[in-house]
Amino acid sequence: MKRLIPILLIVIVAACQSAPPKDVGQLNLPAFAPRHYICYRASEPLNIDGELNEAAWQNAPWTDLFVDIEGDKKSAPALSTRAKMLWDDEYLYIGAYLEEPHLCASLTERDAVIFYDNDFEVFIDPNGDTHGYYEFEMNAFNTVWDLLLVKPYRDGGPPINNWDINGLKSAVSLKGTINQPDDIDEGWFVELAFPLDVLREYCGGVDAKAGNQWRINFSRVQWQYDVIEGQYKKKINPETGKHYHEDNWVWSPQGVIDMHRPETWGFLQFSDVVAGEGEEAFVFNQDELVKWELYTIYHAQRLFKNHTGAYAKSVHELSAVHLPELQYVNKIATTGSLFEAEASRAESEFNWHINNEGRTWKMKK
């Protein structure tokens, strides 16, 4: 019998290791389908006046119409919104048109929380690692709020509110009358020029040049209003006594009500083709599928830790959150409070990594 004890222990340990992990929740992530846009060169310097009437703007394609931030989970927005982009050696230009029958705004101080008004928002992550990205908001008064995010709020932020985009140019053009409820308006145009040298400050060396791709997204916040004593007032939900929640309409859907998931933003591809003088195809980098699988691991680890108090030490253990089939993840390493995962595809020259703060990076094989 003494000889059987080690054998029995081995069998018991092996059985424990192969046993399916306890179910700790359902991982729900959107399908990976970011939109993309070819950003052509401006044929001439642009006058930032909100009109978008230069030939370069006329030749630049519009994005698809904005959709609800949750994508197909919600119905299409009641009002249309779309954007377009251009660039030259000095600026990234962004134009947009927001259909709006009731133009209104209240905030006039720079760096106020602009989304308390109806607004237009821009999010830019030049190197696509989800850390060190820019957020910009503006209302129909052309009041702006620009801030830098060291990392997403889910990972602790923080937002740096006293950071300004030096040299920023912004303008609006109103097609109607603002804050006058007794008429019906058409909408408003937005025109922006972001200095590229400022956007390079925190982007990890990914320049704006032909062929390079940045992650970018746009959002429109839209509130419900009543007219009370001749003024627009946010509509109150009688059941809660509070304002109705705002609508969030975006270019590339997030799948959840959270703009601060840079891994789901769209792709901006720079082109040296002058707008109107030709077309260029979008080139999808297959390594983005590797990165998305790593983001799947990241979100799964967060869910796992919320339920168990610790990160999973293996893909097998992590399957407790109902992981989709994985193709690229090679290994997961954990400590008491940290984790790192590695993934790659055979055709790539890079191994990709992600850590518990959601930052991705690559290393040559």
TrEMBL record:
Residue intervals of the Carbohydrate-binding domain: 48-146
Top-rank taxon: Bacteria
Membrane-spanning intervals of the chain: none
Assigned keywords, A-Z: Signal
A Pfam family matched in the record: CBM9_1
Gene3D superfamilies in the cross-refs: 2.60.40.1190
UniProt-listed GO biological process terms: carbohydrate catabolic process
InterPro entries: Carb-bd_dom_fam9
Molecular function terms from GO: carbohydrate binding; hydrolase activity, hydrolyzing O-glycosyl compounds
Signal peptide: 1-18
PANTHER family: CARBOHYDRATE-BINDING DOMAIN-CONTAINING PROTEIN, SIMILAR TO POLYHYDROXYALKANOATE DEPOLYMERASE
Protein's name according to its UniProt entry: Carbohydrate-binding family 9-like protein
